[in-house]
Amino acid sequence: MNSGELLIARLEDKIQQASDNYMLTAGDFLDMHQRKIASDYCKSRKLPVQYIFYGGYEDAERCMPVFLPDYIEVPKAEKSTDDRRVPEEVADLVRIIRVTVPKGGRALTHRDYLGSLLALGLDREVTGDILVRQPDEKTGGGADIIVETGVAQFIEMNYDKAGRTNLTVQILPIGELDTGVQNIVQKHDTVASLRLDNIVSSAFALSRAKAAEAIRRGIVSVNSMECLKVDQDIDEGDKIVLRGRGKAVLAEIGGRSRKDRIVVTFSIYR
User: Fold this and answer.
1) Where do the structural domains in the chain lie, given as residue ranges?
2) Fold topology of 94-181
3) Deepest of 238, 241, 256, 265, by most Cβ within 10 A of its Cβ?
């Protein structure tokens, strides 16, 4: 059984449990490729229960499939979104691990947080998005990490360092997530065209060949949807995610440079 077949088997099990026991069930967090498989499967069947993909906030990249009996009301407009305007039973599936770094400490990246979590023996599937916060007057920054509720207490008790950097950790309800304090830097560049491979190459400092390879491998998403087309045109405001490297938004498309290349500005999420 390959990974796709295993994922579908797990979905079927959750669907059956929700239907037979008339209860809410949920799977682990899925990456963009897994989510596409799950979404296509759910759309292709007439399910006996409702379903949504939930990651704690509207633009979440990593989401869990949630199956709900009809007594839990899900507004129609939200059945294919990933925001916090969901029933309390769904919101209760996740928690925030708010990590704070002492002022003057080394600035930590998404990779630092993820690596140190995995070092605790956790599977990637129990953690959702990691939103890195900017340093401020009081702290050296930190991160809001979305996790399954069942592992939150373990993380609070054991997660005290990322490398040599000391961490302070607290558990918060998902309603206290603040996406407006993420560590974002601006990057200015020029590209030959607005094709996806050019944009990925520029945003994530890769060769065009490596960018194209990443797209074909299915580890690049555009606006929360997996994209396999290297020549897809990207528009101003589009969100591009390269799994393992982070997220970028094409914030602005400018004019032409002296060499007739397109001037672009990215917002890079650290």
Assistant:
1) 3-89, 94-181, 184-269
2) Alpha-Beta Plaits (3.30.70)
3) 241
